[in-house]
C-alpha cells in the first residue's frame, strides 16, 4: 500500500497525464442511439413520480456515473516501469521461458537472440553484464521476450520486458516495463484477497490505477522507474511466483483481470485533477487526515469515521514491551533528546486535537522530555508487532500498547471497503466515502487497447 516514498524528484505535474474524458461523437450510429436513449431516459425521469424516484434511490446502490466514453480502436496503452530491486543487488536470479532478444535500453541494436534461458543469474562485470555464459558490454540492457509473460526475476514471473541497469558499487537494478492495466491486474490480487467482494476489489483497482498514474506524472524526466513492487508504492507480485516450498502461486487471476476490465481507465480525481490515492489495510475506526503524513495529500484524502473494518484481525491489537526494550527503541526517535536527560521514566499520550489527527507522545526522562510522533514510534517499534501509528500506552512496570488498525490509516481502508461492499454499497459510494468530494472519471490514454 502506498506509504509516500518518492522514487524521483517531485516535478510539475506531467501534462501527458492530465487526462480528458472522452466524449461520444453524435455523428455516428452509436452516438445517435445514445442521444435517443438519453432523451427517452430524460423524459422518463421527468414524468416519474418524485417519491418513487426517492424510494428507488434508497433501495439501490447508486450506479457508477461516468462521463461517456468512446470505445477506442487504436492507440498505445500506457506502460509503467516497476523497480523490482528496491536496493541494488550484486546478483539476480533470472530465467526466460521461450524466445527472447536482448537490446541496449532505447536502442534497436540486437545484442543477442536465443530460444530460451535456463535458470541462471545476472551479475555486473567491469564493462557490462554477465548473464549465464554470455557477456554484454553495455550499462543498460532490455530483455524482450517473444511472448508475455516469460521472464522470471528472483522467483517472480513478469509480463512485459525487463530492463537491467548498472548501479554504483558493481550492483544492478531490475525494472519491469509492462502495460498499465496488466500491472493493475496484479496489484489488485497482490493487495486484496480474491475473497473480498467485487465492489471492494473494483475500488482497489481504481485507487491502484490512480496511484500509479499519479506516480507516472510525478517521476522526473530522467527517472528509471515510477513505482516500487512493494509497499513503498503498492504490492505487485507479477504474473506468478514461487512461494514457500517452491509452490507456484498466482500474482494475478481471471478474477483480477475481470475487475480491471470492468474498471478499465477509471481513476479518482479531485477538483479535476488526479491525486495520490493513499490507502491502507485497516484504519481501525477512523482514517487519518492525509496531510498529517503526506505533504501532497489533497483535501479529498480526508479523515472519516470507519467502523466497516471491524472484522479485520488487526482492528484492535495489543503489544507489550519491557521498560528496557521500550527505552532502547524510543531513545533514537525522541526529538531533541540528549544523553544528559538520563533514563526514560514514562511515555504519555498527548490527547489528539481532533479525530483523524496524528497522535503524539511525551517521552519523559529523569532530566527532560521530548515529543515523539505516532508514525515514528510505530516505525521504531515495528519489530515488536506495532502495526499502526494509532495506540494508547499504559505504563505499569512494563509498557502496554493498545492499538487499532494496520498500516498508516490514510485514505481508503481496504477492510472498510470490504465491509461497505458487504452491506451493498457500490464502488462509487465506497470511493467517495474515503475520498469525500472526489469523482471517478476515465483517463483517456488508459482506455486505449492495442
Ligand atoms: Zn476502516
How is the topology of this model organized?
Blueprint: H1 29-47, H2 50-59, E1 79-83, E2 91-96, E3 100-104, E4 112-114, E5 117-124, E6 129-131, E7 134-136, E8 140-145, E9 151-153, E10 156-158, E11 161-167, E12 171-179, H3 180-191, H4 198-218, E13 227-228, E14 240-242, E15 248-250, H5 254-262, E16 266-270, E17 273-274, E18 279-280, E19 285-286, E20 305-306, E21 316-321, H6 323-330, E22 344-350, E23 360-365, E24 368-373, H7 374-380, E25 391-396, E26 398-404, E27 412-413, H8 414-422, H9 427-434, E28 439-442
Parallel strand pairs: 1-13, 18-27
Antiparallel strand pairs: 1-12, 2-5, 2-9, 3-4, 3-8, 5-6, 6-7, 8-11, 9-10, 10-14, 11-12, 14-15, 16-17, 16-28, 19-20, 21-26, 22-23, 23-24, 25-26
The protein binds zinc ion.
Zinc ion (ZN) binds at residues 282-283, 306, 308-309, 413, 415-416.
Textual characterization of the structure:
With 450 residues, the protein is α+β, with helices and mostly antiparallel strands. Among the domains are: 89-167, no CATH class; 316-404, no CATH class. 23% of the residues lie in helices and 28% in strands. It contains nine helices and 28 strands. The strands form seven sheets. Strands 7-6-5-2-9-10-14-15 form an eight-stranded antiparallel β-sheet, with no helix packed on it. A hairpin with a 3-residue loop joins strand 11 (161-167) and strand 12 (171-179). Helix 3 crosses helix 4 (198-218), helix 4 (198-218) packs antiparallel against helix 8 and helix 4 (198-218) crosses helix 9. It is globular and about 65 Å long. The two termini are 29 Å apart. The model is unreliable at 3-77 and 446-450 (pLDDT under 50). The structure holds zinc ion. Zinc ion (ZN) is lined by residues 282-283, 306, 308-309, 413, 415-416. The chain crosses the membrane at residues 33-50. This is Amidase enhancer. Residues 170-270 form the Sporulation stage II protein D amidase enhancer LytB N-terminal domain. Keywords: Membrane, Transmembrane, Transmembrane helix. Pfam families: SpoIID (PF08486).
